[in-house]
Design goal:
The chain is of the alpha+beta class and 254 residues long. It has two domains: 3-149, 2-Layer Sandwich (Beta Polymerase, domain 2), CATH 3.30.460; 164-253, no CATH class. It contains twelve helices and seven strands. Helix 1 runs antiparallel to helix 2 (55-69) and helix 5 (125-135) packs across helix 7. This is Spectinomycin 9-adenylyltransferase. InterPro entries: AadA/Aad9, AadA_C, NT_sf, Polymerase_NTP_transf_dom. It catalyses: spectinomycin + ATP = 9-O-adenylylspectinomycin + diphosphate.
């Protein structure tokens, strides 16, 4: 299914289920920032509701998302959170949400009809809201600059730093994820620019020492769906993580 057709279907689904309670549907992430890989990238959405969802609405949304998910090509997923309009107008950190859906929850939703991920607060929403405000696309509802408020820089930084907190231990197992995420964190600290993982990696190729270029090139190619074996070893990624941790800490202190 073409991505724009899928976005229309999911937006129509929210209009059908939430009716007048739907305040907006907004696209963020790689698709909004122009670096979407049709074979492996998730579709990232924020949905805004005027009033709290009922239990029946939550379950109907999950059931419809499971059906819509089956229309996606293998390797792609959906990640979305539903927030109350009051909470995006007057942001608090961590931000509460009404409902969350992602691949990490999909199996649980399929096997446990009573499971609902909602009614909690999520540190990651500071990053999602920042990307939406600065780089997002309105699919339904008021324009982004009218619906959302700017997020304090410190909350966004705290959120993206959480993504790389285990890089030193885990980069060998998930090299592309941690490498490119560390790049976009450093890019934000140095350039004050909210970047995608791909943009962070491309920027890093221009500014980081040449010895790290093989690591960066491999991760960018992997992110873009080019499967080449890395000519090196795990120590190269660990060395990169150590270097980047020091650089990130140094720039945080400036």
């Amino acid at each position: 299914m073409e991505t724009d057709v899928y976005l229309h279907k999911i937006t129509t689904m929210f209009q059908t289920v939430l009716k007048e309670n739907l305040a907006g549907v907004y696209l963020h992430g790689s698709l909004a920032m122009g670096c979407f890989n049709p074979k492996k990238s998730d579709i990232d959405l924020l949905v805004v509701a005027t009033d709290k969802l009922t239990g029946a609405q939550q379950k109907e949304i999950i059931n419809r998302l499971l059906i819509l998910h089956d229309d996606l090509p293998s390797g792609r997923g959906i990640e979305l959170s539903i927030l109350l309009e009051a909470h995006v107008q007057e942001f608090v950190h961590p931000s509460p949400f009404e409902l969350h859906y992602s691949d990490d929850h999909r199996e649980r939703y399929q096997t446990d009809e009573d499971y609902i991920c909602g009614g909690f607060a999520d540190d990651d929403l500071a990053a999602h809201l920042t990307v939406t405000y600065q780089r997002g696309i309105t699919l339904y509802g008021r324009p982004i600059q009218e619906m959302f408020q700017p997020i304090d820089r410190s909350y966004y930084l705290q959120s993206i730093l959480t993504d790389i907190s285990s890089a030193a231990e885990d980069i060998s197992d998930s090299p592309t994820y941690f490498t490119l995420n560390m790049c976009r964190v450093l890019m934000f600290l140095r350039e004050d620019f909210v970047a995608s993982k791909k943009e962070g990696g491309e920027w890093a190729l221009q500014v980081l020492p040449l010895k790290f270029h093989p690591v960066l090139t491999y991760c960018l190619e992997d992110y873009n769906g080019i499967t080449n074996e890395f000519v090196g070893n795990k120590e190269a990624f660990v060395a990169f993580a150590d270097y980047m941790s020091n650089e990130i800490n140094r720039w945080r202190e400036l």
